[in-house]
TrEMBL record:
Molecular function per GO: oxo-acid-lyase activity
Protein name: Carboxyvinyl-carboxyphosphonate phosphorylmutase
Highest taxon above the source species: Bacteria
Entry-linked PANTHER family: CARBOXYVINYL-CARBOXYPHOSPHONATE PHOSPHORYLMUTASE, CHLOROPLASTIC (PTHR42905:SF5), PHOSPHOENOLPYRUVATE CARBOXYLASE (PTHR42905)
Classification via Pfam families: PEP_mutase
Gene: bcpA
InterPro entries in alphabetical order: ICL/PEPM, Isocitrate_lyase_ph_CS, Pyrv/PenolPyrv_kinase-like_dom, Pyrv_kinase-like_dom_sf
């Protein structure tokens, strides 16, 4: 998948909301809802594959493997994937990016925390030297232009807004397509960043891991340069809540009849059951002349 569509969204004058998807069915649901881009979270992959927190248990290989199952369900909608810290040096970051390209990913975001990282919303995190972080961005932009690169910095929670702006400037100069100032939620501070970096697209995070964040109007966000708003785990948390209620209902009453569920026919439609029952559709690639 080309990064062109993702870069087009970053160059737009409007805000695009990017929800997290984590399997082919959730990816299909996001596409049907009309989303123009989707996100694959490292936290989601770590939880669903390993039952572990977002503390460095998964690697680029697991993210890429999960992405390959999502791409067919997305029908060309670009996938933005979490690339953690790049999993090492600039060379490791390039290897990660190449694996992502092979998986069909359109863009990645890479952060400047010390590796192995702490979850971006936990106390005690550290950031690496700004020059080394910028070197990773430059390596990605130079060696893997097939991917849109979003440069995340966690400096705000460590050193404050001035260092965040400094790092974002370095990352933009190194070739990042957008900057991602984690923790900067105040509209005034976003405006300060936008003024310091005119023309540089900004990505913000609306993860529930960050607690209660201010809900800002899209028009206000667009005015201060925000182009993407990520919702990496909202759908996953909603699905787990629904599953929890269903399991409880079965345990308590012996039936899930009282729980709101997707109709079976909608489920089979999402997974293409009718097409799979057609032997030609099952065994002959689409658009193949026979």
């Amino acid at each position: 998948m080309s990064a062109d569509e993702l870069r087009t969204l970053l160059r737009a004058e409007t805000v695009t909301h990017v929800p997290g998807v984590y399997d082919p069915v959730s990816a299909a649901l996001a596409v049907r809802a009309g989303h123009k881009a989707v996100h694959l979270s490292g936290a989601a992959v770590s939880a669903l594959m390993l039952g572990r927190p977002d503390l460095g248990f998964v690697h680029a290989t697991q993210i890429a493997d999960r992405a390959t199952t999502l791409i067919p369900a997305l029908g060309g909608v670009p996938l933005l994937a979490d690339a953690d810290t790049g999993y090492g040096t600039p060379l490791h970051a390039v290897w990660t990016a190449l694996a992502y390209v092979r998986a069909g990913i359109s863009g990645l975001h890479i952060e400047d925390q010390v590796s192995p990282k702490r979850c971006g919303h936990l106390a005690g995190k550290e950031v690496i030297d700004a020059g080394l972080a910028a070197a990773k961005i430059k390596a990605l932009a130079t060696e893997v232009p097939e991917l849109a690169v979003i440069a995340r910095t966690d400096a705000y929670g460590v050193n404050g807004l001035d260092d965040t702006i400094h790092r974002c400037r370095l990352f933009a100069e190194a070739g990042a397509d957008a900057v991602f100032p984690e923790g900067v939620d105040d509209l005034g501070e976003l405006a300060t960043l936008h003024t310091a970096l005119p023309g540089v697209p900004i990505v913000v995070n609306r993860s529930e891991a960050g607690g209660n964040r201010p809900v800002l109007l899209d028009s206000d966000l667009a005015d201060v340069g925000v182009r993407l708003v990520l919702h990496p785990v909202a759908a996953l948390l909603a699905a787990l809540r629904a599953a929890s209620l269903t399991y409880r209902a079965i345990a308590d009453t012996g039936s899930a009849a009282g729980v709101d569920r997707l109709p079976w026919a909608a489920f089979t439609d999402l997974v293409g059951q009718d097409a799979a029952l057609d032997l030609d559709a099952r065994y002959i690639p689409g658009r193949l002349e026979t």
